[in-house]
Structures are given as C-alpha cells and as structure tokens.
Amino acid sequence: MNFASDNVYGVHPKILASLSEANAATSPSYGGDSFTARAEERLKEVFGCDLRAFLVTTGTAANGLSLSAITPGYGAIICNAEAHISVDECNSPEMFTGGAKIMGLQGTGGKITPAQVEKTLKGFIRGEHDPKPKGVSLTNATELGTVYSPAEVTAFSRLIRPRGMKLHMDGARFANAVAGLGVTPAELTWKAGVDVLSFGATKNGAMMLEAVIFFDLSLAEDFAYRRMRSGQLISKSRYLGAQMLAYLEGGLWLENARRANALAQKLAAGLTRTGTVRIPNPVEANEVFAVMPRSLYDRLLASGAMFYDWMPDSLGGAIGDHEIFTRFVLSFATPEDEVERFVQLVAAG
Amino acid sequence: MNFASDNVYGVHPKILASLSEANAATSPSYGGDSFTARAEERLKEVFGCDLRAFLVTTGTAANGLSLSAITPGYGAIICNAEAHISVDECNSPEMFTGGAKIMGLQGTGGKITPAQVEKTLKGFIRGEHDPKPKGVSLTNATELGTVYSPAEVTAFSRLIRPRGMKLHMDGARFANAVAGLGVTPAELTWKAGVDVLSFGATKNGAMMLEAVIFFDLSLAEDFAYRRMRSGQLISKSRYLGAQMLAYLEGGLWLENARRANALAQKLAAGLTRTGTVRIPNPVEANEVFAVMPRSLYDRLLASGAMFYDWMPDSLGGAIGDHEIFTRFVLSFATPEDEVERFVQLVAAG
Amino acid sequence: MNFASDNVYGVHPKILASLSEANAATSPSYGGDSFTARAEERLKEVFGCDLRAFLVTTGTAANGLSLSAITPGYGAIICNAEAHISVDECNSPEMFTGGAKIMGLQGTGGKITPAQVEKTLKGFIRGEHDPKPKGVSLTNATELGTVYSPAEVTAFSRLIRPRGMKLHMDGARFANAVAGLGVTPAELTWKAGVDVLSFGATKNGAMMLEAVIFFDLSLAEDFAYRRMRSGQLISKSRYLGAQMLAYLEGGLWLENARRANALAQKLAAGLTRTGTVRIPNPVEANEVFAVMPRSLYDRLLASGAMFYDWMPDSLGGAIGDHEIFTRFVLSFATPEDEVERFVQLVAAG
Amino acid sequence: MNFASDNVYGVHPKILASLSEANAATSPSYGGDSFTARAEERLKEVFGCDLRAFLVTTGTAANGLSLSAITPGYGAIICNAEAHISVDECNSPEMFTGGAKIMGLQGTGGKITPAQVEKTLKGFIRGEHDPKPKGVSLTNATELGTVYSPAEVTAFSRLIRPRGMKLHMDGARFANAVAGLGVTPAELTWKAGVDVLSFGATKNGAMMLEAVIFFDLSLAEDFAYRRMRSGQLISKSRYLGAQMLAYLEGGLWLENARRANALAQKLAAGLTRTGTVRIPNPVEANEVFAVMPRSLYDRLLASGAMFYDWMPDSLGGAIGDHEIFTRFVLSFATPEDEVERFVQLVAAG
Q1: Which residue of chain C comes nearest to A310, CA vs CA?
Q2: A–C: how many Cβ contacts below 8 A?
C-alpha cells in the first residue's frame, strides 16, 4: 500500500513500448528528430491553438525554465506559500531566473486568491528598492489536491496582465486538474490567460518527461538557448518525443488522470466513512489530505502502509495536539484493492 | 551511412531491457531507489575505489555540475579551446558555476599540455583583478578523437594539485578512451589525479545518462543540493539507475566502446588507403577527423552520407583553400558494412 | 524638520576634511594605499582583535558580499521578515550569493528569537529538496529601532555554530546599537559569536562607506575576489580609507551615534508626553516608531515635516483603522531644535 | 615620477569643492536629489540628445551593468582580447549578466575591426549550442592608448544593428578619446550608433564616479532595478551628482583630458627622441606604450619611476628577448616637469 507519491509508480506500458519503438534506426539528435516535432504538433491539437513546446526531464527544470522566461533576476514571482517552486526545489527557481524573489503567500487549501495578489502588489510602492513584480505562478492541481477552475485562473490573468505581468501554471498534475474539472486543456490555460505552462507527464505515467508550453509565443523567443544552457537539451531527444506521443495518444494522459482521481475519491469516501479521519479540503484531483489521530498514524505506518505527514500550515491552526496532517497520493497505477484494504485497515482501529 | 554523431544511434537492447525490468512495482523516488544505490556500488567496483556518483541526464549538466563543485563564480577553469565546455554548451558552465571563466587554450589535436597550463598560470599575477584559477578540465577522449594517457593526465595533476586546483575530466567518451588506451578506469582517473569525472553513457548506448563521479570525496559534500537545484534530480530515479546497471553489467560499456573504436580504425585505414583523404591526428577513440577536397565532400553529402565539417582551428593552418575538415563518429551500433560502403564511395571518386 | 532617514543628512565635517587631506600627492590604487591599510589597523584596535576588513560603498553591497561568503546559491539565510536584506535590497542578496534563499521570520519589534530559528531549522527535514541552512543574519540596531544585546546575539551563535552555520550582523546602524547598549564593539560582535559584520558608516556621518569585517578569518579567503567581481573595489581607494580613519578617529563614530540616540530619546519622550501618540517598541537606538491618528499624520505632513509611514506588520494587529504607523530617524546632524519644534507641532493639535 | 595609472592621482580641486558645497542641508537620498537630476540634465546638454544616465561608483560596475542591459546569460559579447571587461574585472561581466560569454578577439593596437566581428558572427551556426551574440563592446580610448574614430564606431554599428545586437562603449577614458579625436561627444556615441556608454570620470579627476548612459532609451527600462540590485544605488547620492556637475562644469572634463593627452604626446616625443625606445602604436589619448630594453627598464625602476610592464600579446611577436613592453599613463594632474625629468632619465642611459 504505497500512497507516498505518484512518482513511486513506474511507467505506463504504452509509454514504455513507445520507447522501444523509437529505438530503431538513426535519428537526428538535440531536438531535431521527428518524434519531438510530432509531439509538438500533437500538443497543438490537444490545446487547440498555436503554441511552442519544449521537452525537458524534470518538473523542477520545467518550472525554473518557465519562470526564467517571465522574470529577470530583479523580478518577483507571486505564488502560494506551499508551492513547489517556493519550498520544494532547493532554490532552483532562483538559479534559473538569476535570483528572482519567489514570494509565497499563505493560502487556504493550497490556493491563493486574486485579492491576495492585489493586496501584495499594492505593497510594491518603493520602486527599485523592491523587486519588480513580473508574474504569478499557480499550481494546478495544487500541492493540496485542490484545483483552480478556469474562472479562477481567469481572474488572476485579468488582474496581472494589464500590469505587464505573466501567468505561469505549474501543471505537474495538470492532467488531474483537467480531469477533475471536466474542462478542456484550452479552457484551463490560454483561454484563461495562462502564458506558460509546465505540462507534467512523469507523475502521470511517463518515465522522465515534462514540457514547457508557451501560449504567449513571444516568451518562447530565445527559449531554446535557455534550455540548452541549463543542461536540459537531451541529445537522444527522440526518447522524450516518443514518451510524449504515447502519453497523448488516444487520450492516455486523461485516462490515467481520471483513474487516479477516481481512486482519490474512493479513498476519501472510505476514510470519511470510518469516522476517525477528517478531510479538510475538497478532494478535486488525485491527492487526499487527511487529519488523523497520531495513534492511528503510528498504527498505519507500522502496518507497512506508505504515506507522508504534511506541514499543517495551511490548516490555519485547525489541528489538535494529538492529530497529524497526512497526504495520500493516488496514481494511474495504484492497485484499486490497495485503496480498499487501506480503508479497512483504518476502520479496523 | 550516418557518421554525424554517436548520439544519432539508439539505445543498446540490454539497456532498453533493463528499463522494462525496472518497471515492476513501486520504488522510492528522487535517488532513494535500489537501482541507483546498486549503480553507485557497481561504479566503485569498476573504478576500484571509494567514490561518490550522482546520476544525471545530460553531459552538459554533468560538466556544469562537476565544475560548480570545483570553482566559485570568481574562478577560472582552463581547458582546450575546442572543449565542449568552452564552445558547445551555450554558457552552461557559466550558469552552473555562477559565472566562472572558461579559458580555452589553443591546443593541438584536441589536446593541451601541462606546459601551456603552466604558462597560463604564470599570467595570473594581478590578484583579484584576474579570476582565481581553480581547475583544469581535460576531455578524454578529446573532441578530436585523441586521448590523454594516464601519464599525460598525471602530469596535469602534478602541476595543479600543489596550487590547490582541481582536475576535472569530461568523459563524455570516457569508455572510448579507456578502450583505446587499454588501461583500467582507475589508471585513467583517480590514480592519475582526476578529482571529478563526467562519466558519459548516452553516446555509448544509454538513453539519457551520465554520472558525476567524485574521487575527491570532499567535493561531493553538498553536491546533492547542487544537483537538485539544477533540476537534475529525477523523480523516477530508478530509470537512471537501471540504465547504469545494464551499461556496466558484464562490461557492456567497454564492449560497446571497443566496437566503436575498431570501426574508427577501420574507417581511418580505409580512407587513408584511398589516397584522397588526409587524417591529421591519430585515431585513438571512436572518431575520425579527415581533411578532404571540397569536391569529394560535396559528392559524399550528395550521396546521402551524413557527417559534419569541423572548425579547422586546431590544424594550425595546414589546410588548403579547396579542402575541408570533416568529422566521422563511430558508434557501438554503426553497421560495419556502412563503413565499408562509405570507403568504397570515397574510393570511387 | 527632516526625520525621513539618517541618510538625508550630509557628511560630518571631519570626514569631509579627511577627504581633502587625502587628496595630496599620488597614492597606490585598488586598496593598496596607506589610508586603507591604516583603516584596517584602526578597526583591529576598535574591535580589540585580529580581523579582516574590506571597504565598500553601500550597505547593500556590504550585506550581499558578506552573505556570499557564508552561503552558496543552494543555501538559506534566516532573518527577520522586515530585515533590509529581505525587503529593501531588490534581490541583491540573491544576486551576490548566486540565488540563496532569504527566509524572513515574522518577529516582534524588529527582532527574531533563537527559538524561532530553532523551530525553523527543525523544518529542514527533506535533505536537498530544501535549501541548506547556512546562516542567520541579525540587523543591529534593528530596522525597528531596537537592539540585540550581546547575550541575545550569543544565544543565536550558540544555536547555529554547532550546526556549521555562520552568524552575520547587518550593522548599518551598528554604532547606534553599541552606543545604545553601552557595550564595547567586541562584546557585541566576535565575543558574542558574530562571524561577519556589515559595519555601517554612511548613515552615521560618512559619505559612502561601509566595511565588511570578518572575525572568522577563514571566511575572508578569496573575499578580495568577491569584492572585485561585484564592482566594489574602488580605484581611488584612499578616499574610502580616509573616510574610515576620520570616522574612527577620537571615537567620532560613537559620538555621532550617541547624539542621534539622545535625540531619539528626546523625541520619544516628547511625543509620549503629548498623549496622542503611542510608541509600541522600546527606543534603543536612533529611530522612533510611533502609532498616531491619521488626522495628525496628515497635519504633520502638511506642515512640511518629513518622515515615513511604515508597514505595521510587526505590530501584530495592534493598530486601529484610523491610525498609522510612522518612523522617525534621528541623525548625528539633526538640529536639536527641530526635535523640539516637532514635538510642539504634535502637541499643538 | 608616477606613470603607473591615472587613478594614482587625486581628485580635481573643483570636484572636491563641489562635494563640500553639496554638504549643506538635507537632501533626498537614493538618487532623488537635485544634484543627480541636474547632472542628468547636463549630460543631455553635453551629448546633445535625450538620454538616461545612471551614476555609479566604479568602471567595473558601469561596464557590468551596461552589459546586463544588452545581454542575457545565454548571450555573447564580442570585444578586444585585451578589453578591461575581458581580462581586468575578475568575471564581473559574467556576474552582472548572469553568465554571458565575453569573447575577446585578438586585435591590433588595442582595436578590433568590423571584419573580425563579422567573421566571428559567421561562426555562430549551431543555434543554441552556441551562445546568442547580443552585443559588441568597444573601449574608447582603448586599453592601448589608441582611439576608434566616429567612422570606425559607425562601421561596427552598421554591422550589428541589423542583427539585433547592441553596441556598448567602455568609456573609462572617454574624455581622452573625445579630446584626442577633436570630435563632439555626440559624434563619438549616439551619432555613431552607440547604444550604451560607460562614461568614466574617476580616472580623469573625479573621486569615484562613472555613469551608465543610455542612448537607446528602451535599454534603460528597469535599469534602476539592476543598479539597486547590484549594490550601486548610493544612499547619499548627492555626492555622485555633485561630482558629475563639477566634472562637466565649464568643460572641466575635456580640459583635464586635453592636458593629459598633451602630456602623453610630450612623453612620446621625448622618448622617441632618445632613440632607445620604440612606440609601436599611435599615441592618441593619455597613454604611451613603449618597447624598451630590459636593462633600461630595470634602471628606470631602480631610479624610482613608477610604471607597469604590459602583456605584449598585441604586438604580434614584434618584441625581442631583451626587450619589455611598458605602459605610461598621463593624468590631468601629472606634473609636467616629471615628464621632462623622466625623458632626461631615459636619455641619460
């Protein structure tokens, strides 16, 4: 029973097969291959628009590179205090942007609001003594398993675009957000004002694959240089393109996400039924965050179940001394019966 | 007939199979998996010493990260003017090191000498107006298909170690150097004073895999932070570990290199026999650099053969107006009959 | 009546005279002059210890350079949320350190506590996914006009030194802290565990002069390179040395600070007597922070008095809707009668 | 007899007096003062155009900041191999630009040619594997005491502007170039296509003062942030403005430069007359570079004369084993009789 992360599961068989298929013959390297070109074309179809897509190997690189296209080192990026770019990437955004400030606002349920951003922007009154606000980054689905709807995303865009700021979406779990919301990829991105998207695939069935997708094409100028300079231009690039082709083929990416999301709903419902566990935030993607007694937590870990405790900062104090905040991540490959067995284990307490 | 690069060929079947085998079950992520741990252990056996190994996805990242461990931003790294770190990585070493100077010296046949380095170091006489010399980087096998012997490497180490400088080896084609020289990996690295090695695998049969290997263990302190910060810590890390295990298993890495090197010898001998092509440098690894008439060059390209022309800077002017300098790279997977056919094509002129 | 900042006042006449005296004859440049050498010797006497001092022109540079000596780009520096390095320097610490994280903790009265730092350090549990904590920076006197005593400083040092972290003091108003506490410079720095000090002079009577002073001499290694690289090595360096000599001569620096501090006490006492203004924090240096009715604020500004309103974050909500938080800075050169007139102006309401 | 550098001399009395005059009363800080505003206005008059000027304290900072406005970290700046930005600033341009490549071309007499730049640009054929060429930097007067004429500067601009590249002039000795050429500041800068100028004052009589002057106003956007972030925004900014006002007042800057240049002519003529010293490059500003016998060099140094030997790289081998290449810098304040005495000393050999 492993709910530690979606990245503890392997690669979807179709994506693995695609790597083997790509292995025949020679192929141009450094992004000049036909797999990469077709992957970009397929992404245009998926998003229903013109765009520029750059394949990379990690979400941290995708985020750092995305942000480097929207802020110089003297700029600031506003995000949720628990955003991956703020607390999980070892100053990587600072490295990629040349030192920009990542300003984390304390949100609720993993989400910040346009009103918070507006208030923050009003604090930038001292010219060059402050950094220059250059962008907002929204994680969708969020680090707490919630989602921003197209309308919510649009509200950020309406606020910041007139100020010359850009909107980034960290979509490490973008598929889960799209599946959870039942919207189109277009509705959740460029139609809602997203300028650049970190389009995740690794957590959702790929081996190592993310794409930086520019809807604001002007931001893509020189981006090939940025990717190369950061050591993210893969020589045998066909193996990134091949992963992406399989990931998109026949809607595999959404199919995987829907399965993971459904398991999250099942787990959440099961845990709630036990009566010993609280689920403070809505479960809108493939993660379940639960408050449980420490005694239960200890018993579950002792039984071999794998999951993490989580920083309760976002709960606003609504947690008791003998409670613990925990995270469960469901994957395209999580066995359904493990969810059932886990709920039974909780209920057996 | 594709001699453009060793990276236009695919992945060795055994390495591809290893990826599939690694796909079962769940596995800890971010380098905590058993594949990665075993890969490091195997590297210790291969090199016959204690070491620290960090797996990454590209040679550019391996080099930049290696250099970041030996120089701060106010430092200088001395290398050959044609070194990959100097002219092929879009300022990536500068990004990873925070702005260090990459000083390329004009070498011969892809190689610099300790005497050149010593003379250069004598020029650092103005204290902090110059950067501080912090390291030397040798590419082995070199960008021109030659190799540094253990004795040659040792001479650099003897020169710089007493000055507190570190020795880096860019081993994107390290296997070809070891195979070409008929030495042990230990003899060519730590026994010769190498402090950190970019151990390449991608060009020699892996999909995307390089290792930063520290023989000076003190340099490895905090290196996990450096790798994470640069977006090079892969979440599903088992797929790097699995590649490395297969790459080393049964000496596959050297077997591949020996095959490629042998094809290079065959090509060089064949081209020389034609009488229309000069090979100015010794062929010591898996690359052949040839001076040919432009008319021949045009005919070969027109026939569909794929290879690059090369900057003739290292030839010291020994090239005629109607000649062109060209590069042929042989791979573990290059069909032997293509070498034969290509020689016939040249001879048919 | 100008209480906007201590930097709106000019240069002390003795320091100005020192510049003229230094103007005769030729002098070695780039720090090789005798003024600079003597300034370093005098600082050793003032601090009663061996040390290394590097003169620069701004406090922002002094801070950024100091921090660059104690943290790499993957590190973190812990400070008060209102610290100058956190909110007043336009990402300068990030530039100088190559991207380190400046973690501001919400303090009280401009001060953080060792317990806060300890709790923060306990959150660094995820290895390289977090940055590596490398230092604590205390501003003394603080941005809110309070001071850390030697005992308080020592408590930070005792906490972090065993963890390999370094202690920086931003002493833009160091003289005011020393004067306010009635301690020796040694007691407030190296005896209390400070490793590196930004020793301010500009605000307290110099023209443009700060010193980076290393008590941990190992941190000074290579620092000359850092200073040069940042464009802070002045060619006609004698004019920094001459400022420092005059600043220290006969205790001018402490004399200036004592005068400014005394004016702050006078202002605080006068404002308190009026009964319409609250002073929430102790006045321990040369700044007075006051909560006043907005109507009074408007009247004072209209009368031509110059001072700033301030972010009330540190007040913990203890401010009414019709109130405003304001800052008054007293300088070595503030006319005493302006303090008196200002108090009368407030009282006249 | 000190010919070591123009920065070994002090501050012109009028500039020193201006600092004293600026000392009265309070003044807004951080560039908001009237001295700074008037200095910018005066620079507009001097250059006869609209411009944006930013005052800083060192030439290294002026250069680094200028370059940061024209190249990102993945860019390249082309200059002469002996340019200050290439060999005298300890990787400072790399720090300010976030890692751009400074490509030094071996010139003649301190100068490169448009043809050299054009040939270099033709080598950028590999897309993002190379950095992106973003600018050319010309030092004027050059590091070897020669000058680029307006026509020569224009030729660079005509070459690079159509390619989207920008032209920077390192004018640490700009006054000497203008004076030497007998042209207007406008003719040598914006009329010749210069986009940004490091306008030096320190070497020519100021205390610590340079200006970054943008003729391409679009480059000045956000530049205030860049200056602040680098620790170059002086709090008591009036003392930079006051220096600049005095430097420009009544043409002092050109008067100083003319005097220094005339002394250089006098020294060159005198040395040539002795018959024992060769002057390989034209003397066009305030520096004289001379090839002399080592025996003479030793005798001169022993007599107490101060000057530097210089790297003979630019001489193209035209120097004998027993000869040495030397530099003599003349300043606005160099006593004329010292020039005469030095020539006599040489002649007495």
Answers
A1: C123
A2: 54
